[in-house]
Amino acid sequence: MSVPADAPILTTKAMREAEAACAIQGTSLSELMELAGAAVADTARRMAAGAPILILCGPGNNGGDGYVAARLLAERGASVRVAALAEPVTDLAKAARAGWSGPIEPLNGRLAPAPLIVDALFGVGSSRPISDELAVILGHFDDRRILAVDVPSGVDSDGGANWTPPLSADVTLALGALKPAHVLLPTAPACGRVLLAPIGISASKAIGTLPKPGTAKPDATAHKFNRGMVLVFAGPMRGAAALSAAAALRAGAGYVVLEGSERAPFSAIIAESDERFGERLNDPRVGAVVIGPGFPAGDELLFDVEAALDSNKALVLDAAAIDAALPRLSETPRNAILTPHEGEFARAFPQLYGSKIDRAKAAAARTQAVVIYKGADTIIAAPDGRVAAAWPGSPWLATAGTGDVLAGACGAMLARGGDAFDAAVAAVGWHIAQAARIGPGLVADDLVRE
């Protein structure tokens, strides 16, 4: 699986608006279709490597892209056939169909397959699951190489509906921009390897994928305090906070204090009794406070979260600390990052609907904090509407304690000052890169070892 780094993601509505803007700026929709069809033809030709190609065309503009691709492939000498689900219904698709001079076969159970199948049936235009009858027909091709145009048939492009596609793609060619379905479960795995074809659409990056991870190197004037001082408060389960403190140091913090624990994971980390928590909160050098890892809900946690909120420090709130802080989070704008997994998100935000992107954006707007909605398809959302999608992550992170490591990394990035969304994006990128470096057999402790 692969998704381009730092790529724009557009919903169906946003994609339509971007296409309309192109038309206003002088690039007609027919020209966009020609560019899209050319990108499909190029990708199909590489995948087929000289073998015959069968293009399945639907009645809309996705089918139009398929007809254009068929024409261009035939002009280049490729062995290409076209099968249609129905006659074209849009003007663009009709014009593209008219440009294809070859035969058109009916898309039914008697259709002979080819080594490469190009799925140009529905794309982003799907508003409902495909019929059972069509699902059976498409199932006959599941042993062939599949190239999907924009999204596989039977997939909700916006990622809000849980439709199971009958024909998973080996490669999905996103036209102009990625779509939410490419980066959200359960649809992302069905898209296979995702490629992006820039067809001249100017797409906003308000929603996009993670940039390539990089390390912010200290400059010549750096010292331990201006690199960021992080205060991690330990709950009853000391190991979780120790992981967070170690991660903060490994992720670039210059100074880390582990409050409420007698032992520190590294000699360079200061371990202190919790009696000094209030004193440390008043230390102007503290750039970020991490609270929640290993800390169950209760009066003790509520008291400490209240004290952290009163300090007006930048905060990373994990696990039960998220619920404890919710009543006050939106009162005063502050640099804060919340790191809920699926269960914690559902508990904290029980009545949010739509795709995971929609729900993360709503939670960020409600709390006026950056939300890292964790999972295999992690979504990072800011109160101003910015979103970053971290697909694919690393499956090796599905083990105990890795969330505590992420919280500590967030603390390190946040303690440097600056934008909480940028800090969260950097922390998630660091987290995934560490996991990729380690690979099989990863345990959370490995993420903070050299």
UniProtKB/TrEMBL annotation:
InterPro entries: CARKD, Nnr, Ribokinase-like, YjeF_N_dom, YjeF_N_dom_sf
Entry's cofactor comment: Binds 1 potassium ion per subunit.
Gene3D superfamilies listed in its UniProt record: 3.40.1190.20, YjeF N-terminal domain
GO biological process: metabolite repair
Positions of (6S)-NADPHX binding: N61, N62, G63, G64, D65, G123, V124, G125, S126, S127, R128, P129, D150
GO MF term set: ADP-dependent NAD(P)H-hydrate dehydratase activity; ATP binding; metal ion binding; NAD(P)HX epimerase activity
Keywords in alphabetical order: ATP-binding, Isomerase, Lyase, Metal-binding, Multifunctional enzyme, NAD, NADP, Nucleotide-binding, Potassium
Co-factor(s): K(+)
Domain YjeF N-terminal: 15-207
Catalytic activity: (6S)-NADHX + ADP = AMP + phosphate + NADH + H(+); (6R)-NADHX = (6S)-NADHX; (6R)-NADPHX = (6S)-NADPHX; (6S)-NADPHX + ADP = AMP + phosphate + NADPH + H(+)
Family: In the C-terminal section; belongs to the NnrD/CARKD family. In the N-terminal section; belongs to the NnrE/AIBP family.
Protein name: NAD(P)H-hydrate epimerase
Species: Sphingopyxis fribergensis
